[in-house]
Amino acid sequence: MSSVRRYHPASAHDLATQEAAATPHGWSAGNYQDSINAGHAFYCLEQPETGFAVVMPVLDEAELLNIVIAGPQQGRGLGRQLLEGLMQDLRQQGCQRLFLEVRASNAPARALYLRCGFHESGLRKNYYAGGDGQREHAILMEACL
Questions:
Q1: Is the whole-model pTM more than 0.85?
Q2: pLDDT tens digits for 61-114?
Q3: Which of 41, 55, 86, 115 has its CA 20 to 30 A from that of 94?
Q4: Catalytic residue among 46, 101, 120, 142
Q5: Catalytic position from the list 32, 43, 113, 142
Q6: At 37, phi and psi to the nearest 5?
Q7: Beta carbons within 10 angstroms of residue 132's beta carbon
Q8: What is the DSSP secondary structure assignment for residue 132, as one 8-state letter?
Q9: Is residue 32 among the annotated active site residues?
Q10: Residue 120 β-bridge partners
Q11: Beta-carbon contacts of residue 125 (< 8 Å; ≥ 6 apart)
Q12: CA-to-CA dists, residue 9 to 20, 21, 39, angstroms
């Protein structure tokens, strides 16, 4: 089992490149730089190249902004390890709830979140840009920590 730790990413460009290799709908280097500048919490597995997550804690709540597992490592339980590890850390810091949004079409991620104790709490219609000018709904989810 991989350990989960907080870390400070060295390069927003590297994060964006890593995510682009793992998913077609990744953040830009500018998005990552904004999160670094804002002081958001970054978590990773033993090596950031395997997987990482971005969390925005606010008082006794937090929002999972992004979670990425390297393409070749997907489907091996590492997303769950990362998510459970960061949830434990947030709980120890006094966070009581964790929120997120996920593409309606991302069935593997939605299943992971349900397995980790999240439930659906809302819908943002036509929130995400999709291919060919199409829009996609975001499913809002939350978990008590």
A1: yes
A2: 999 999 999 888 888 899 999 999 999 999 999 999 999 999 999 999 999 999
A3: 115
A4: 101
A5: 113
A6: -65, -35
A7: 4
A8: G
A9: no
A10: 141
A11: 137
A12: 16, 18, 11
